[in-house]
């Protein structure tokens, strides 16, 4: 009797309708479109550029929200020692990347999409001198001008609130050392959507995004530091904690993307009429089997 009852219950579970897929963010992908990593070193000149991207493999999802965070970090360093080439020396690189993701909304409940960003790093310039008395030593670092745009299915649209402003650190004979903090918070409400949709968030440079330069006949060092230490030895100021005494983990470009769903997006599964009907049939059959077993036991005792 027990085996028959269990078999019937198994059949009931197999026939019960499956619950709808949950509303959530999926298919998260970060693509680095910037300059390739480079490390160039001679006796009188050192240059290095590196980027590092991090993105979660999945979003954190509750009944009404799904969110994930990313970070892009980079550094660009340029150091020239006495005996440098007698010309303007520049080491320019681009930081650019895409963040693609899908918002699943299988029940067409609707959701609101919000994007928050933190952009933080330091620009350092140190002028050590010049090989030509006719020229003042000059070193400068620039690296914070980025544009932002979002494609929600109809092409990319500029997002001014997520863009960043230009910051420059300049050192010369009057100010031989300068360390400039570049920091900006951004927030953007992309609006409300219904149904499953793919999004692409794009950041790119309108000019060279990590520019470390020295003027004619100058020697010194300039750095753009957004969360990475240099690997090439010889840099004096392109390291963390560095002169700013801040952890590299707090520097870089951070994004947090959140989809807030309608309360009906992930409902608690409820038994429908078919499930209830099947449950009633099973209970009747179990009672019938129990009744037969009792009659069979009574006949045996007699």
Tell the overall outline: elongated
Strand proportion, as a percent range, falls in over 45%
**Terminal CA distance:** 21 Å
The total beta strand count reads: 17
Count of helical stretches: 2
Order of helices and strands: HEEEEEEEEEEEEEEEEEH
Overall number of structural domains: 2
Helix content: 10-25%
Mean pLDDT: 83
Label the structural class. mainly beta
Major beta sheet summary: 8 strands, antiparallel
Structural Rg: 31 Å
Could you name the ranges where pLDDT drops below 50 across 5 or more consecutive residues?
1-20, 270-278
Structure keywords:
302 residues; mainly beta; 2 domains; eight-stranded antiparallel sheet; five-stranded antiparallel sheet; 17 strands; disordered N terminus
Describe the structure.
Helices cover 14% and strands 47% of the residues. By secondary structure, the chain is mainly β. It has 2 domains: 2-17 and 271-301; 24-261, no CATH class. Strands 2, 3, 4, 5, 8, 13, 16 and 17 form an 8-stranded antiparallel beta sheet that branches. A 5-stranded antiparallel beta sheet has the order 1-7-14-10-11, with no helix packed on it. A 4-stranded antiparallel beta sheet has the order 6-15-9-12, with no helix packed on it. It starts with a helix and ends with a helix. 33% of the residues are buried. The model is unreliable at 1-20 and 270-278 (pLDDT under 50).
